[in-house]
What does this fold into?
Amino acid sequence: MYVLVVCFLVISFIFIVIGKSFVLYFDTNAKDNYSATDSFFIGLCLTGTVLNIWSLFLPTDFFALLFLILLTAFLFYRNSGYFIPKVKALFHRIKSEKLFSLLLLVATAILLLFAIILPKNFDTFLYHVNAIQWNEMYRVVPGLANFHDRFGFNSSMMVLSAAFTFNAVYNQYIFAISSVSFLVFFFWLLRHIYFRKGAIGIMALLFLYFFTQQYGSDISSPSTDLLPNILVGFVLLSLLFENNSLQKKYLLYSIIPLFSLTLKLSIFPIAFLGLAVLFNDFKNVVPRLKSLILLGSFLLIPWLIRNVILTGYLVFPMDQLHLFNFDWTVPKEIISETTKGIYSWARIPHRDFNEVLAMSFQEWFPIWWKAVVPHNRFLFILAALAPVSAVIYFFTRGKEVKKIGLLVTGIAFSGFLLWLFTAPDFRFSFSFILVLAFFPVLILQSLIEKFKVVFNPLLIVSLLFSFYMIYQSAYALFWEDFRRGKDMTLFYLPADIYYVKKKRNIKFDSHILLTPEQKKIEVFEPNPNHYQCYDKFPCTWFFNSNIKLRGEDLQSGFKY
It folds into this structure.
């Protein structure tokens, strides 16, 4: 636990300073509109972009982290006149808000129980760890998706995780990006619950509870599902909780939605917020358009270049965007297999994907629905009824509030429909579902404010009960790891993923790849009883004998 707290502080310092420094330089007149949470998530996006650029030329290893630390120290020194008073004000606020500070401390302790356990996400051991290792050891590798198709997904989460594994310091992988981002988001929701109360507090509490229940087991993992859903939830709820924030914090609603696309394509509708920023202020359309083009280029072009190098395509797995003819380009039949596997598994897992994809919506939906857990069924129904909620909201709100509410529901419902008719696994787009499901709470805002004497105490009681339920989930996962050997090191270091290697005793087959000069390079494949590769390098879950090396080492890449 101690090590995680140190890592949290280092990461938070880097993200907040980079994010706030960017605001100081590019939105000076509105610098005080951006909270520390805003700065944290802006800084996360900017850091991820810098690392995407770095990875084009150098491995994303400890030197990348050292570069970020030095850059952050320079920015802090350069803007010390702004940062030092803010730090002092923070400590003063902690002293004056003792009860809330106690809640934050309890929340941190609970989240640390989630964060120190072994990753529970299957994909972490399937390809996340290996993807991180490729980023640590090599700059972006041409045709790496030919070796293992999952490496072509190119989520910026893998580059961020590679820079912040702290492996060089602690001699084991520490996956802190998911957990510190979750903690900051948790704090932000908690603040709205405690201080805003009313309808906003109720919506924040409902979101916090169900979001934690869905993603609690992913907090200790470099999951590619959790972080994008944190960002989606944060920007959409920020719009609803602060109706004038679109005008006051345009950088927030430009940077986060655009960068989110580099984390997961299934949240694509969030990018429409960039257009909302553009047309929200007609007096400044031209300057905003220039700013949006520059930001979009900075955030997306490095990621697109990585896509082309890894796969031969601008976006993978979309073979429609086939603009190049490199020797490392992934064959279209492989892309087709990958896409079918994603869509079919999300609908009906453990069944032949050709059979699943041949089914009509009326055929696969009842089978899918039967497997959905009860509370997610309830959330799905509420989300599906969002158009009804939007109509009621339209006729009961003022102009400005109405505009923001309809914008949020429109984006979230677009995300919901895209999710439902492509790959309807709840973990892919859960924030869209939650925002839609709990939007009706805001329709009852007037009623809740009228009877706040009843609702506010009930909200605090519900918060404490939610803390207890979340703690129970966290403790159950923690105890499962701790009891294996009464391992007291968990109170210092998070669980080491290589414990899983000993437990599962995974066997590997060895294959030899020949370079053009006939040099032998050994690669590995789990035997037929396993799919996970995390404890071997280089490893692919399915070795194709048609794969060839392009040059004399692994850095040269792979081709068919």
In short: The first strand starts at residue 508 and ends at 514. The first helix runs from residue 2 to 26. The mean pLDDT is 90. Residues 2-320 form one domain.
